[in-house]
Amino acid sequence: MLLGGGAIIAAIYFANGGPAGNVAVQVPTIEPPSADTTRPTPASSESDPPAQESAPPTPAPSETGTEARSRRAEPGSPISHREFGDWNFGLGSLKFSADKVGGWDYTSCAPVDAAGVLAKTHCDQAVQIAYSAYGGNIKAVQVLLGFPTARDAKAAATRLAKLSSSALKWRRDRVLKSYAYGKIRWRDSKDYVIVTIVTANKAASGRAAKFHGYMQADIESYFTLRDL
């Protein structure tokens, strides 16, 4: 299932530079924190050991990823991981899929804001979703951020692009600890910023860049159309 239209996804994919484009930073190699199945516990910056969050989130319970994706959200409604199920992508002969293995909704952006960028740009919604593909050889995390205006979202994406991966606290316990491919892409789409982190071991590293590019383009296209 395409989250957005096929033509839109292809246009975004190539506008982002294809598999090599729109890559902000390399995923740092760190020891991730222990997984917590009942509440999100994003890690601190990669240069520091995992620390307790200064403002604990109050998210909805995590999901297993076995649910089907719900119908398209009502325009203007709060974003939620429940809008998304397993990712099944097909565009011509190109096909990718990933199982949703976790989802977390936050009541604010504070739990994922490590550098104050989101607070300064008025971020007011945050969601994380974890995926696994190719028998666990690729693992991905998406951070979805909502803003009052497209101008705020653009400002946040611009500032994040100038910083390292430590600007966000994301679920590092849900990506591979060691990997042959590990990169982060982010971009704004209307009132949202979408961040996609993908790691792959050697067995899947050859397909990881395209997987990453199309996963990012697909979610961008979804948010382009979400509130229409």
TrEMBL record:
Stretches for region Disordered: 30-81
Biased composition (Basic and acidic residues): 66-81
Domain of life: Bacteria
Comp. bias intervals (Polar residues): 35-47
Protein name, per record: Uncharacterized protein
Organism for this UniProt entry: Sphaerisporangium dianthi
